[in-house]
Fold:
Amino acid sequence: MKNKFNYLLILFLIIANPLHSREFIIVQSTTSTASTGFLDYVGDIFYKESGIEIRAVAVGTGQAIKNAMRGDADLLLVHSKKDEMEFIENGFGIERFDLMYNDFIIVGPKSDPAQIKNLQDLSTILKKILKGNYTFISRDDNSGTHVKELSLWANYNLDPDQYTNYVKTGSGMLSTLNISSEMNGYTLTDRGSWIAFQNKALLDILYENDNLLFNPYGIIALNPDKFPHVEFTKANQFIEWILSKKGKRLIEDFRVSEKQLFYTYK
Amino acid sequence: MYVLDRVFEAVLISLNVSVGSTLISLMISLPIGVMIGINSFYGRQFIVACIHALTSIPPVCAGLLVYLFISRTGPLGWTGILYTPIAMIIAQSIIIIPIMISLILKNIEEDFNSYREELISYGANFKNILILLIRNKITLYITIALIGFGRAISEYGAAAIVGGSIDHITRNVTASIALETSKGNLDVAIGLGSILIVISFILSFIINRRKIL
Structure:
């Protein structure tokens, strides 16, 4: 009898689970915000104030959006504005809010074999790397950084797939930086991941501060009409909180290795 | 103390999940294994062959399978267990249940057949035989559990796909090693790796002493 009771109890717990409202929200996000510790940092403070836990899944922007389209999230925090607008147009989310920004940079071997360090023009740099047979490492995972990189090649009418020195990793930003370091390659990275990256012995920033390399992050709550299980109120509570004066100050105050990762809109 | 906290938390999550999946797998494997082991029925050989084949299921495939079921758009999406330790337990169980069943089958085939007739002539039913086997072979089943546990705690793909490597919740030892290595935090990665190696070493030491393989 007792055995049967236990099974029933387990069954009940599994079934009852979704009926209760959750005390946490799942955020589909990117390595640049989750693996750098940013979401843990704001999540801890938000939890202390509201009792709502932030559970962050760190994948590339492309995968984060796909996961959110399956309904496996309450919030989406990514950096590829075009894809985000499409996400909303298709009814998966309600509204996109500008959250924060930083920029992309080009990093490469300290020895700089392609001699790009003193060049001022992005198109010249990219052409020089690609056509000069210097290794360029690409994320190749539909992440925000990868989408940005592809848009740059397209801008300058380059087709990197024709070149054997164009290496595709299919992994996250931090792994890709490690691979660049091992293969003496150049790569495009968001500044946040670069600051959080600890294995910088062989790599250095070779090109930065270009308006073309602007990197905006957006935050979107999932549409509760499309996904009834979504914790819409709690997701909105987080959005309101992080966009408040206090939330913005927390974003500005976030440091890794004493460097600021993200900037807010005034 | 940052490093120690990280290591301790990851180990705790790994132990929770892997002990859970080991116990659940054992509860499922024991009756199924013994039932297939002591009975002969049509299609038995095919089922046994399938179970043996499933012992080498790649963890990422088990993870993908569970993911498709429990994702919100999947048939079990309403449970909302994606990105929780429960999902990791299920995925690991799918990996280790075939291993446990095939070990139980192997042992019954080698051992049990010699007194099978006798037991049946005394009128023993399935339940009697199951209890008898567990009582007399308790160390064997503990060893089988340890083998399953060793496989569960050291796998990466399945738990990473369905767990999502969420900090404090589903970031177990193997997911932490992958993450910290990519960050370049080699001290944490080495610490966690050493713990995993020590655990596997102790497990295989105990298992080899039992000489059942």
